[in-house]
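ERR on first pass: missing label on line 2. Operator R.T. fixed the label and resubmitted. Corrected input:
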Amino acid sequence: MANKVIYAVYDDPEVLKGAARKLVTSGVKVKDVYSPFPVHGLDPIIGITRTRLGIASFMFGITGTSLALLGFWYFMISDWPMNIGGKPNWTLYHNLPAFVPVMFEFTVFCAAHGMAITYLIRNKTLPGMPARNPDPRSTDDKFVMEVRTEDNHGHSAEQITGMLRETPVFEINEREY
Amino acid sequence: MHSEAALREPLILGHKTYHDITNDIVGPIENKAPRGWYILTTIAGLIACYGIGCILYLFSKGIGTWGLNKTVDWAWDITNFVWWVGIGHAGTLISAVLLLFRQKWRMAINRSAEAMTIFAVIMAATFPLIHMGRLWLAYWVFPLPNQFGSLWVNFNSPLLWDVFAISTYFSVSLVFWYIGLIPDFATIRDRLTKPSWKKAYSILSFGWTGNAKAWTRFEEVSLVLAGIATPLVFSVHSVVSMDFATSVVPGWHTTIFPPYFVSGAVFSGFAMVLTLLLVMRKVMHLEAYITVKHVEYMNIVIIVTGSIVGVAYITELFVSWYSGVEYESYAFINRATGPYWWSYWAMMTCNVISPQLFWVKSWRRNLTFTFFMSLVVNTGMWFERFVIIVTSLHRDYVPSSWTMFHPSWVDVGIFIGTIGIFFTLYLLFARYFPVLALNELKSILKITGESYKAEAAKQHHH
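pass 2 clean. output:
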């Protein structure tokens, strides 16, 4: 039997959340949801874990701080110590206050850009990528729930669509793949 | 679903559906631009061309074509630089600080305010670059190895901090803006039918899908970027102020500068946001989204920051007397009564007195009055920088160096030109980009939409 993908289209995020909860409690796995804006509270229902992008950003940030410190030490202390206004650059420790602004800026620079690039790669949103949302209305006003039969061996496609029909669904589309 | 107190005024007026929001914002992109847009873009474009012409003339002849002299060696250029950077503070403040404070009213204004920020920072960066005189050596500001010169750049200098602050601020604001734009470009992509346009927005939208995990990541990125952009906003104008405060010029050498400059920046930034939005709201029929309440909120920010600026002016004045330093006292007496007295009093009137008029509720909710006031504040903030820079410099420690600054036509031409370039960019943005954050507005529609609020209130009473 060919695998089927079922798209249940809803027109309200709260209704969709209720439907997803109903399906999940009956043991159906919801593959994904495509929506025009973030639906808060949906992630725990369909089993999406928290993103680790925040941790990534922190890592990029401290990398920036370390690189900045290394740079200051090399440029200002080791390679060519300058004596400006009678304040010689002898040690990194003594000159650190003057380096704080650039250290801060460079930390933010690395944290922000590192995270942004990671975000784009993880989401597979990069220049030239084709649109992959199943229904063009999902970026306008419709909320599309995707259920695949290959994830749900305990239920047939008919059972799943039957369950979906009991919810205030706007439209159901099925496709074999 | 989380609901909001009935006391709060709705932020989206009338009965709108999600689809209406898409129609209202994407419609103007699909349809032919109104005649007014072509007229304004032509005018702005011509002014921009004149400004670019003046810049090219400057490069061919040198900085001597400006009105600068040995005593007043920073004048219009740095005044314009600080003015534009200040204007460039509102966008990221609105999108980052107000996001952290969960202010829903930011959603109608953040997109265009961020666009304004980016264009204003580009205009700001133009001035120190052309002030270098030899633009082709601009890369010397980066820490490059010794073969480019005998020394590394000086990391003890606020001028170098500024290079890092402005470039970080610009690039982070750009990324923040673009990440927010991606889902909205996808909305346009999925809606347009003309193949070439669809293709263009498809490229801009980076293949956005809007699946649940993507949105989780989107919200995380927005929150973390807001968290790190918030101290960044404050750092940028603090660093700009240190360009002055770390020198020994009377009138510049004050510790009050960083907070004073930051509040001045927010003050002028909000004024410019109001100038642009009040026009855009009318021309693009966005009255349902940019409501009088939004304007009132922005005017409240103007009162607060304007008052901080006023207190800073008076504190400076007091300290110059209380310090007992005669050079400091002279600098301030000279500002108010010297040959540039008119610029000082223009600044005082526009920045200290005029924002206090917004205490009157009906005035701060009056759009014509607000528009007029936004122009007054922008003018006042330009004079503030002129006062700080030119009047502090034109009286040197040595009276034989005392002089006056007279702007040349190149000074004026470049300044007017940057306003032209700024408006050209902004008009192009308003024509081709989603001017309101579609996805964010849709997420608050059922919470703060007028008809939904009315319905919730009705249910509550039963």
